[in-house]
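Team,

Forwarding the record for the chain on the shared tracking sheet. I've put the sequence and predicted structure together so nobody has to dig through attachments.
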Amino acid sequence: MEHESKGQPSFSARRRWIGRLRVVLGTTAVVALVVMANYLAVRHPVRWYVTPDTELRLSPQTLSVLRSITNEVRVTVFYDREDPMYSMVTALLREYELINPRIRVRTVDYVREAGAAQQVFAEYQLAGATNKNLVLFDCQGRVMRLDGRMLAQFTLEPIAGGSEPEFARRPVAFHGERAFTSALLAVTMSRPLRAFFLTGHEEHDPDSAHETVGYQRFANLLRQNCIVPATFSLEGTNLVPEDCHLLIVAGPLRPLPEPVLQKLDQYLQQGGRMLVLLNSYGLSRASGLESLLARWGVEITLWPVSDRDHTITGQDLKVIRFGRHPVVEPLLEGGAPAALHLWRPRAVSRLAVSAAKPEGLTVTELAYSGERSVLMGAGAGARGPFSLAVAVEKGAVPGVVTSRGNTRIVVVGDSFFLANQLIESVNNADFGAFAVNWLLDRQFLLHPLSPRPVREFRVTLSARQMRALQWTFLAGMPAGLLLIGLVIWWRRRS
């Protein structure tokens, strides 16, 4: 009996097949659950932020824009991977891609991927050595190109050890979210906004790369804010174009003829939007803008303001006092100190008495010089503080309908602060962007998208510490793993 019980199988054939079937079904069910979980996770991603830093998260404004996009958008990061900003650019765009799968991101290293770089050059008609470190947004043929140099805010740090004073640029803030969200709005909009620069009176050239007087970087700033820059002249029978959403008068050196001033006034009467930037080097006589803007409640001095308490060279002026207005309020949010860097600014203030003041007109002073500032030249003797910029708005008048909307004007007593050299200084570019967006009544872009901080971590090691660390990795860690293996082998053998 004992021999027969030992020879019998513990399970019958039927029970063995049932057990195998259960294993197969259970494995299939687990695999199916894993596949379904991954399928749902890809289409409904949920992210948890382990860092308490809220500035690293996408803003509610950006999230609303991303969720509203229904067209395919291709984003090409045309960057050198060794650039310090590359990782921040790609990481932020991957977050956009996770929120909306219709946004497709690809990276092309123009230094190491020559073939792919040539394809990008041909596809987007790029030419020249300056076309590098770009982010290209493409939606149905509408292309927005962002210059990587405009995505970060830099500070100058002295380099020790040299015979001559030298400075190195170090990034301190990353403005990618505001630029990328604006670019998405630009390429997904069917009708682009246009800004026209007035020409013919020695104004700053938006196509010029000249460091001191060129406006190329300001033109790029307009493009980053979904605005197409162009130039035009009001000579002869020319009028302000119908598709002009913003008119820019950028520091004319020669006086504007009376017919041109009349056309500008007509444009403003129709509800036009105008950014006026004054140039203190054209002081031989008035430009004509003084009398035009006086009818809109703005007073302009012919002479520049000097402020020895807030200057480096004696010609420049650092503005740290601001009024209360949507153009400058975003600069003051968050508690961080804000500043503008101006060059020989003229005083621009609210006119105390205006006999021909239009109905519903509001003039707000935006920025001020210091308490001990003075007027130069023939205006010497007057004491500050002086207003250096104003915003003008003419509200809707009952029973009157204008073809372009409500009139808005921003006047700044300096034009060089938006030129290629100074636009990157302190908050100059931010002020320019907020002024333009207020003029165009784009409230969304007046809510500041906080820049992401650029943090650097440095580890300083002596030569002895470097050798110890090297031997730890090369010998210590392999020896430790070998010792653990020998201990396990010895225990199993015993």
